[in-house]
Structures are given as structure tokens and as C-alpha cells.
Amino acid sequence: MSSFETLAAVTDRVGKNIERVIEGKPDVVRTAITVLLAEGHLLIEDVPGVGKTMLSKSLARSIDCSVKRIQFTPDLLPSDVTGVSIYNRETREFEFRPGGVFANIVVGDEINRASPKTQSALLECMEERQVTVDGTTYQLSAPFMVIATQNPIEMEGTYSLPEAQRDRFMARLSMGYPLPRSELAMLDSHSAANPLDDLEPVTDAAEIAKLVDVVRTVHVSETVKQYAIDITSATRRSPDLRLGASPRASLHLVRAARAHAALEARDYVIPDDLQTLAAPVLAHRLITNLEAQMSGRGAEQIVSALLRSIPIPEKAFSGRAGG
User: Mean pLDDT across the stretch 145-152?
Assistant: First the structure.
């Protein structure tokens, strides 16, 4: 079995396992797995009660690895996230007690209910995969992924995530309300017991690390790289946006496209991969201007309009041979 066939088999098992809990959302599940393989972090935003935490927990439980959950509240301290040094009277030395980020998968529930100071405790962890406390740096184990949920900022008791924080999330998902038949199936499966209780791991951290290495081998031609830059550059010039996509967004878009191509059993990226992921990867980083807000044009709609205006490169479909 080739490495790409192994990847397809493992991710299919993970996807089916998650769908035992999350009814009727295959696209959402697939995007979550894409972010995992692309070594990114996932932000799940939607109104309460649509399954944000269920999705994050089911993905975490599908992998036999260390998992920690942080419930973000207004009184949560940065040290609760990163850890703290405590003086031991017996040894007369300071001992480091790790915080919630010391795990392979960190589930941050309702991240925008904590203060901006506590939210910023995740910045170093997410970008550099390390934690610095009292001048000492501690490396986080691989794979490392933060899956954060948040309620819309219009809801009471929420703090808007800073731009720097949002930029570190590779993609943002919106669960949306389930279809009537899916909601009916949920009533049957969830009312008697919690389906998470019966969810068993179908892979482990070591196997996920191997699949991440496979994704890194996916070829991205110079033409496709230029197309990715064309997309992010267009957001910086758009009259509808006050803040466009950062260079980190370009990097995340290409990395996510690699994972998407691997899930399609391809060893090279095509423009379709970038187009599929442009909205999830870019929209949460953009800030619309007042005119766009007044007319009801959201960031996702603006990204879609920009994609239609950018020419698709003709020489981008020839795979590795086309270089």
C-alpha cells in the first residue's frame, strides 16, 4: 500500500468515526481533517448548541493521543493556559507545572469568553509550538493542534479575538444548523446517551505524524504558488476590505492545499484545491469596511467574488511534470 493509499484509509476511518457523532456535516469534517494534516489550528465559530464542541471532542477522541480541554472564562488566567512555576519547600526549588496547552490536541472551548490577555497566551504556542515561562522554554510535543470554539462576537459576554490571534488559525469553520433529517437522527442517537462515550480511537499520534510527513511531499508548482499569492494579494487591494490577508495566510493556504490534494490521492496541488479552501483559510483574517458591512457583504462573499475575478493559470494542471 502506497503512502497516499494509507493516508486515504486512515483519514476515511477518522472521518467516519467523527460522523458517528456529527450528523450530516461531511464537508465540515473533511475540512477539520485537512487542517490536522496541514499542521494548522482550527477555529469553529457559530451560535451555541450546533455541535462546535462535539466536533472538536470527536476529532480529538478519534486519535489515540494526549488531549486537554480548556474552558475559557472571564476569570481564566494566562498561567492556566501555559503553566506556572511553583516553589517546592522540600526541594527548595521552583517546579514547573504544565498548563492546558501541553497536549497533542488542545480543545479551547468558547475562546472568546476569556480576556484578550488570556487569549494571547496561546500566540507563542500556536506559532512556534513552544511555551516560555519565567525565561525557560518548553517544547510542545508533535503533532500539536489547537481546536478552538467561539460564539459570534455579537453575543453577550464575548471578546473579539485580536487580529494576531485570528491569523494563527489556519481555517475557520461554521457548523450551521443541521438538516431536518440529520437533526431527527441526532434526537435518536443523542437523547439516550452521549455518543462520545462510545467513541474509540481509530489511529494514534505516531500515525498522524507519518501522514503529516506524506502531506509535506505533495508538490506545489511555481504557477500554483503564484496563483495563491494572486489570491491573497487581491484581498489587500480590495476596496471592500480594511485589512487583507497576511503573508502567513498565503503560507497557510498552500499548506492546506497540500493536505487537500493528499486527501484526493494526488501528489500535486491544482488551483481547485486553493479555490476550495480560500474562504475557510482567508475569511476570518479579513476585516470588511463600513460600506461592505452596511450592504451585508461578508468576508466569505468578498473572497468568492475575488476568486471569480482572478484568472486561473492554464499551466497548473500538469502535476509534477509541469513543475
Answer: 87
